[in-house]
Design brief:
The protein is of the alpha+beta class. The chain has a single domain (6-103), classed as 2-Layer Sandwich (Dihydrodipicolinate Reductase, domain 2). Helices cover 24% and strands 25% of the residues. The protein is built from 3 helices and 5 strands; from the N terminus they run H-E-E-H-E-E-E-H. It has a 5-stranded mixed β-sheet, covered by helices on one side. A hairpin with a 4-residue loop joins strand 4 (84-91) and strand 5. The N and C termini lie far apart (35 Å).
Length: 131
């Protein structure tokens, strides 16, 4: 599926076109975005290894909550917050992984990002005004 954010994902992920696809689900909700990302991971052996890779990348990020392997987030868990909740699953038979990510786009969207970035620029704790 073509999506306007594919070039940005390619630039920041190190993946090549065709190695992943994602769907931004259009849901009948007042707030929130749910993304499902599918990708090939031939060097990953199992869900625990995939979880560890994500844990290494995001464990120090105050607004990223990584769920246990196989547990998927829901929009309700991020409503009125600046959090991005991430769930992972992996099928070792096919070498394919799935990431489900949810945010409240009315907080984690432009306004929350602006406050978070301002905090970082001015040396204020990243979470100030957002928790």
């Amino acid at each position: 599926l073509d999506h306007r954010h594919v070039p940005e994902v390619l630039m920041n992920s190190g993946l090549d076109e065709g190695q992943f696809s994602f769907t931004a689900h259009l849901l009948p909700v007042d707030r929130g975005i749910l993304e499902t990302i599918y990708f090939r991971a031939p060097r990953v052996k199992d869900g625990a290894q995939l979880h560890e890779i994500y844990h290494q990348d995001y464990s120090s990020e105050p607004f990223v909550r990584l769920y246990a392997p196989g547990v998927m987030p829901n929009l309700r868990s991020v409503q009125h917050t600046n959090f991005c909740d991430i769930g992972l699953s992996f099928d070792p038979a096919t070498g394919r992984g799935v990431v489900v990510a949810v945010i409240d786009n009315l907080v984690k969207g432009a306004a929350g990002q602006a406050v978070q970035n301002m905090n970082l620029m001015f040396g204020i704790p990243e979470t100030e005004g957002l928790l």
